[in-house]
Input
Amino acid sequence: MALLKQVNSIFCTDVTVKVKATTGNSFVYAVTKLFLSSINLFDSYMVVLKILALILTAIILVPSGAHLFELPGKISPDREAYFIIQGIYYGWALFAIPIFAAILANGALFFMLRRDNFKSACWALTSCFLITISLAVFFTWIFPANEATVNWTIVPENWESLRLDWEYGHAANAIIVFFAFIASTLATVRRI
Output
C-alpha cells in the first residue's frame, strides 16, 4: 500500500513539473497540480476492489437464495416431478466463475486492507473463508448427489436421500453465503 501511495506521489509530482516546463504558464501549472493532487490512485483501486468484492459476493448469493426459497416446494414432489424440476439447473455450473472470483476479490481486499484497516480486512477474510466453506458443503453433499444421478438424469435407488442431501446442502449454503455477503459489506463500509 505504501508503495502505491509513493508511486502516486511521484506520478503527480512528475506530471505537474512537466506541465510547468512545457507551458510556462503558472495558472495551468497550479490547476494541474490541484487536479492531480485530488486524484489518489490507491484510493481509486480500493474503491474498485471493494465494489468488485461486494458485487461478486452478491451475485453468488442469488442462486443460493433461490435454492433456499424453493426448498419448501421441492422437498415433497414425487420422483418423476422432481427429476423434471431438476432439469432447470442446466448451465448453473457457470456460477463457479463468480464463486472463485468472489474468493479472490475478498482475499485481495483482505491483503490490501490488512495494514491500514485491520478490522475491515478481517471482515474480507471472513467472507473469503465463508465462501470457501460453502464450496466444502457443495463438494461434500451436493456434488455427490449430482454425480450419483448424472445431474439428475438417472434415477438411482437412493434418490430420496440424495434429494435431501442436495436440497439441505443448498439451503445451508444459502445461509453461509448470506453471512459472507454481510462480511463483504462490513469490509467495504467500515472506515476504522
Residues 14-21 have pLDDT under 50 and may be disordered. The two ends are 17 Å apart (CA to CA). Residues 92 and 175 are 19 Å apart (CA to CA).
